[in-house]
Structures are given as structure tokens and as C-alpha cells.
Design brief:
Elements (H helix, E strand, L loop, with lengths): L1 H35 L12 E11 L6 E4 L3 E5 L3 E9 L3 E8 L3 E6 L4 E2 L5 E3 L3 E5 L5 E9 L4 H4 L6 E2 H15 L2 E2 L9 E5 L11 E5 L3 E10 L1
Parallel strand pairs: 3-15
Antiparallel strand pairs: 1-2, 1-4, 1-14, 4-8, 4-9, 5-6, 5-7, 5-10, 6-11, 9-13, 10-15, 12-14
Length: about 220
């Protein structure tokens, strides 16, 4: 009888071990499935943030206008050149776009919606930004993060002083510790103009990676 009890206990323990292994295997598979549903890939802890991004400069406003990819430092023609931002994250991420001039910075995209993995996100969605203010220097910072960045969500369209933004941008750059694939090369008014032409956003993208996030700033000298 004692031997029979040992056999039963041994069978119970083996059954529990098999059950535990089944549960763990199901949890792992379930986690992978949750990460892949809807084309969304979950970023694992410790993995770098990766995304392709770029700013498109469109010269002219007719159907034969020419476009080029903006460098880290570039020139713009006031009243002629138009801008459009493109981002393609490798894992689902929040995207923020901050516009700044010599005095103020404001949000063009508050990052409220998460962009799906490998989806090209453009701002404006089907338009261009016209540069209509009277200034000589502007900058566009593009931030990609797997998590919501509260400091950026709070900037809003009213904006913050440029000095405050430069301090915050510096903190974000330190947090990113970014590896770049491309070497750095009156009140502001930005209006969206309906897009014409068939420019492919993919041709304006460059790959970037960072630790906690990606931040890339494009600086422009505006000429008359």
C-alpha cells in the first residue's frame, strides 16, 4: 500500500510538471501572438528602438514639382519649398514632431496614436507644410518612442519657450544615446497645403536606432 501511494504521488507530481510546462509553453506562444496581431511587433526589454524617418522637401507647388530628402542641415526657399515628415518604425511606436524657431517650439503631432510596425506614417497625412512665417532659422525634431513621453504630450499647439525646448531636447538626446546611419549634416505660421504628385515616401527614409527612443532634428536656413 505504501508503495502504491508513492507511485500515485509520483504520477501526480509528473502530471503537475507536464501541466506547468504546457501552461508556460502556452503563455510564451500567446505572448508572441499578442505581439504579432494586427501587424504590431512588441519591442522586447533591452532592445534598441529602430525606425526609418526623413523629411521631404518639395520644391514648387505644381504637378511637376521636384522633391528631395532633407539633410540634418539644409536650406529652404520661403514661399516655395514645402515640407512633409515620414516615419516607419520597426516596432509599434509613438511619433512626436516638434517645430521650433528662434523663440518658440510647438507640437505638430502630439503622439496620441501608436504607429504600427513597418507602417509608413506621414505628417501631414495627405498634404505639405508651407513655410509662411518671417524668420531665417527653423528646426523640426522627430521623436520615435515605444512609450508615451509625457513631457512632449504636454507641449501642445500653443508651445513652449525655445530655451525650455532646447533643454528638454538635450535630455531626450541623452536618453536616446542614438546611433545615426546618416552623419549630421514674427509668430511662426505653418499651413498644410493639399498634396499633388505621386512622391513615394519610402525614398525619403533613412534608418536610425536609439536606446530608449530616437530623436533626430533637421535644421533649416530659410532664404527669401
Amino acid at each position: 500500500m505504501h508503495g502504491e501511494q508513492q507511485f500515485i504521488q509520483s504520477n501526480i507530481q509528473s502530471s503537475r510538471i507536464r501541466h506547468l510546462r504546457t501552461v508556460l509553453r502556452s503563455a510564451v506562444i500567446g505572448g508572441l501572438l499578442l505581439g504579432l496581431v494586427g501587424g504590431t511587433v512588441a519591442l522586447q526589454a533591452g532592445e534598441p528602438v529602430r525606425a526609418a524617418l526623413g523629411v521631404q522637401i518639395r520644391a514648387g507647388r505644381d504637378t511637376v514639382a521636384m522633391s528631395r530628402r532633407a539633410k540634418a542641415r539644409d536650406d529652404l526657399k520661403a514661399g516655395r519649398d514645402q515640407l512633409r515628415v515620414h516615419v516607419k518604425p520597426t516596432a509599434a511606436a509613438y511619433v512626436y514632431v516638434i517645430f521650433s524657431d528662434a523663440t518658440r517650439a510647438r507640437s505638430l503631432s502630439p503622439g496620441l496614436d501608436r504607429v504600427a510596425a513597418n507602417q509608413i506614417w506621414s505628417l501631414p497625412n495627405d498634404a505639405y507644410f508651407n513655410i509662411t512665417g518671417t524668420y531665417t532659422q527653423i528646426a523640426i525634431s522627430v521623436i520615435v518612442s515605444p512609450e508615451v513621453i509625457g513631457e512632449l504630450s504636454g507641449i501642445g499647439s500653443r508651445g513652449i519657450d525655445n530655451d525650455d525646448w532646447l533643454e528638454l531636447r538635450s535630455q531626450l538626446e541623452e536618453r536616446a544615446s542614438m546611433d545615426l546611419s546618416e552623419a549630421g549634416d514674427s509668430p511662426t505660421s505653418i499651413a498644410a497645403n493639399m498634396r499633388s504628385g505621386g512622391d513615394d515616401p519610402a525614398q525619403f527614409l533613412v534608418n536610425y536606432s536609439g536606446q530608449a527612443l530616437i530623436i533626430q532634428t533637421f535644421q533649416f536656413h530659410v532664404q527669401d
